[in-house]
Amino acid sequence: MKCRFKSLRQAARIFILAGIMIGPISANDNEAWTQVVRSSPYWTSQGVYQNILTIRKWVLQSSGYCSDVDRHVLFDLRGRFLAWISDGRSQQDTQTRLNDTRQALKNDGKADTWIAGGSDVTGYPFALACDQPHVNLGEAKARYLGTLPADRIWGAWDDLDFASSGQPGTLHEAVEYVYNKRKAQKRLNLPEELPAYLAGQILIESGGQARAHSGANARGILQLSPSALSDCQIKPRNYWHRLAQIDCALKLMNQNARNLRPVFETRFGHLPKAKRDRLFTLLLIQAYHGGAGRVEALLTDDLLSKPAQYFADHQARFTAGDIAFGMVFHNLGRDRLGLASLYYVADVELATRALCRGKRLKSSEFCAWI
Predict the structure, then answer these.
(1) How far is CA 285 from CA 10, 330, 367, in A?
(2) Spatial contact of 141 and 163, defined as CB atoms under 8 Å apart
(3) Are 86 and 68 in contact (CB under 8 A)?
(4) How far are the Cα atoms of 52, 209, 363 from residue 356, in angstroms, in the given order?
(5) Looking at residue 18, what DSSP letter applies?
(6) What is the mean pLDDT of residues 162-171?
């Protein structure tokens, strides 16, 4: 794969196509696709997490139906793959092919309805380009694991003092060091599996590149915004400091956890512990991407929390991933929630699995929860 962008988080915002609805749903062009969401019962979220993971894996790894990057894949509201097309010679040609395929899927009974795509609205069945700027997971893993001497680090930040110039450590060792020290200081109260997911975030946010800098002015291995850097009292000369970035991200995660835990426990406190912890972790990842306030609204707002209430009442039918995705999916188009919100969590999950299923970390305590 080619590394054409510093952050998959940015790439996830480059999405899809839509437009004029032809079928039983009546809505304005920019609203038609949300009618598909609104009309879908909550039970359709069964299995959605694994389905989306499969499709995103094809994109991330240029595999499966995305082994040729000059394609689009189409999928339904449950994340089930329906078809693929070869891209046309122009964007308009590709759009025409997508719309023809959408209509054919409806005519063949493989889709309940279809919405023709355009340049600035979302069509249905949903379409995702295989050729998206994305991080090279292989290279990102190598940086994280310090495969090359140039990728190893040492330094000091606050009361942290990691490795030395004579014996530099890896990013992985730095994550473990910062997390374990802050936990021993009783400054963190996070799910046991969260550090592994933080490692996955490093791969997705920056590919492990210390000087990653987004168009939105997010910086460093964890793509911290100017406001986050300020909240962590990181001065400009230390914006790229990897220990500072890890420490700040954990601090922000802990703040989000502290703010969300009471309302989360009220809604999902009856779930089995392992499932409850996994769901809370996925929601913390969502909060890192889109803000804790938005996740809190999914748990408490009279309208936005309706999916969460359903999943809480019928939790045995769904995985933690299905619930986390369903809470967002059934609110798409509200509160600035879009498909990129789903993709980010899926991509972090895939990156975390790629690390934890590799030879170096497969049997480690760090990955015991994955």
Answers:
(1) 16, 18, 17
(2) no
(3) yes
(4) 20, 20, 8
(5) B
(6) 98
Q: What is the pLDDT of residues 157-166, one digit of tens each?
A: 999 999 999 9
β partners of residue 74: 83, 127
286-345 residue pLDDT tens: 999 999 999 999 999 999 999 999 999 999 999 999 999 999 999 998 988 888 889 999
Instruction: Say what the pLDDT of residue 30 is.
Output: 59
Domain 137-367 top-level CATH class: mainly alpha
Q: pTM for this one?
A: 0.90
Closest by Cα among 213, 341, 331 to 288: 341
Q: Measured at the alpha carbon of residue 258, what is the angle toward residues 255 and 260, in degrees to the nearest 5?
A: 105
| CA distances for 332 relative to 212, 220, 355, angstroms | 29, 29, 30
For residue 72, the SS3 value is strand
The tens digit of pLDDT for each residue in 91-119 reads: 999 999 999 999 999 999 999 999 999 88
The Cα 149–Cα 138 span in angstroms is: 16
CA distances from 309 to 227, 303, 313 (A): 33, 10, 6
How far apart CA 313 and CA 300 sit, in angstroms, is 15
Q: Report d(CA 164, CA 154) in Å as an integer.
A: 5
Q: Where are the domains of the chain?
A: 8-129, 137-367
